[in-house]
Amino acid sequence: MSTFEFLWQGILVAMQPMNLIYAMVGVTLGTAVGVLPGIGPALTVALLLPVTYKLDPGGSLIMFAGIYYGGMYGGSTTSILLNTPGESASIVTALEGNKMARAGRGGPALATAAIGSFVAGLIATLGLAFIAPYIVKLALIFGPREYFALMVLAFVTVSSAFGDSALRGLTSLFIGFALAMVGIDQQTGQARLSFGIPDLLDGIEVTTLAVAMFAIGETLYIAAQGNRIAEKVEAVKGSLWMNAEDWSRSWKPWLRGTLIGFPIGAMPAGGAEIGTFLSYATEKRLAKNPEEFGHGAIEGVAGPEAANNASAAGTLVPLLTLGLPTTATAAIMLAGFQQYGLQPGPLLFATNPQLVWGLIASLLIANAMLLVLNLPMIGLWVRLLTVPKPWLYAGILLFATLGTIGANPSVFELGMLLAFGLLGYVMRLFGYPIAPAVVGLILGPLAEQQLRRALAISQGDVTTLVMSPIAAGLLIVAAAAFLIPLILRLRGRGQVLSQLAANED
User: Which InterPro entries does the UniProt entry name for this protein (predicted)?
Assistant: First the structure.
């Protein structure tokens, strides 16, 4: 069957009434959490994991994807009206969007963000549908050593992409590895690191770790900050719609942002933040009036917002085809797949095509829902910004606890929820990223399994791991991904020290 036929079948699945409801719930929740500063789609999906474990797998995954898309858009509202990005990928939008809002042009800023998100999401989702089958064909020739090398690349890039330091990212990753060792060894049947506690023989639940670190840890961190300066929300003045000049200045940035964001999101070391900064720099370089940048240029909102949403579709390419998450939300979505006994990758396209193509098609529908939902409901999202923080985070704590009890009614599980929540708070406090720890717990056992298979085939000869051209190439890329940022950072530090020494002289 061709991609068009698979996509048409997926549309039929996505158009089922229950799946439409799941998509609507997802984009509504996603927009709401994207609007609220400090609460992102990763936290929301983590909270919903234990609640949805008995629901339909396809519908739940459609809802998670809708949350992801909605969260990426919702962050633009706080960036424009509050100058506080709801998502890290919306940082660039605040540069020009908030200046437009202060100048009384908040409406056109919100409109170009919404339409740009729709255009980019539509094109990027179609790109996902047509590119994914080719990556699946390539992945089908992978053996154990190629998969192990691919996971090493994923570990390195995830550790480098999250946080300010690759070393801290690797430390977080190895915390996840250590937790993944707990339980019964899949090959020998021996208990590992269970310390005689029967509850640990089944291993650490991914949902418990994700909810604890993202929800409990974040809540404790926010509570520890104390009272902050009151945040002023800029009122939306004048018309919400764009005039002819706004349209003429926005459509090219929408397309350029899509072309920049999608491939960067699809790369193992990608991420929406990189694409938005590149898009902003591109628009500033190509602008007819570059002096407007920094004072409310609409191109500085249109391009980055398109890149933001295009990268969201791009991150689903490695997740669905190879089972590799490149963002925190993708890592939690991977946990969602595994919650239902599904492993994203090339075999999923063969064994469960209805689910995969229904999920891809639902993104097209969710994208249209976002456009219809967001423009008329700007007033509601602005009111949502006034929810008191204590109520909001108290609700998150309650929801996280009840969800964990519902999924696993055990006192020991609640104890682990609290312990991992405190661990997440400490890591957040000292600047250690959370996502690599979750990725380590999810992918650590799979990497170990592939390594042991490769060594069993080669009768323990480690050198065979690099005999395959594909495996060797992936390991070289992984080494470069780790060493190049380290060298650049050391060089930059050396230049700063030289400059300080020169100033003292």
Answer: DUF112_TM (IPR002823)
HEC string of 138-176? HHCCCCHHHHHHHHHHHHHHHHHHCCCCHHHHHHHHHHH
Within 205-352, residue ranges assigned H as helices are 206-211, 217-224, 244-266, 272-286, 299-322, 328-339, 346-351
**Phi/psi at 201 (5° precision):** -65, -30
**Burial (0-12, 13-18, 19+ Cβ within 10 Å), 405:** middle
The residue behind tokens 């942002």 is: 257
Per-residue pLDDT tens for 28-70? 888 877 776 656 677 777 777 776 777 788 888 888 888 878 8
b/e sequence 143-181, b meaning 16+ C-beta within 10 Å: ebbbbbbbbbbbbbbbbbbbbebbebbbbbbbbbbebbb
Coil/strand/helix, residue 369: helix
Nearest-10 Cα torsion for 389, 390, 391, 393:
80
Q: Which two tokens stand for residue 342?
A: 């599904």
Judged by DSSP in three states, 288 sits in coil
Q: What amino acid occupies position 367?
A: N
For residues 438 and 177, the answer to whether their CB atoms sit within 8 Å is no
Rg, Å, the chain Cα set? 23
For 184, the 3-state DSSP assignment is strand
The two structure tokens encoding residue 211: 């909810």
d(CA 416, CA 412): 6
Q: How does pLDDT run across 416-432, given as a tens digit for each residue?
A: 888 998 998 998 888 88
Split at pLDDT 50, 70, 90, the class of 236 is: low
Residue 457's pLDDT band (boundaries 50, 70, 90)? Answer: confident
DSSP-derived 3-state class of residue 394: helix
Residue 325, exposed/middle/buried by CB under 10 A (0-12, 13-18, 19+)? buried
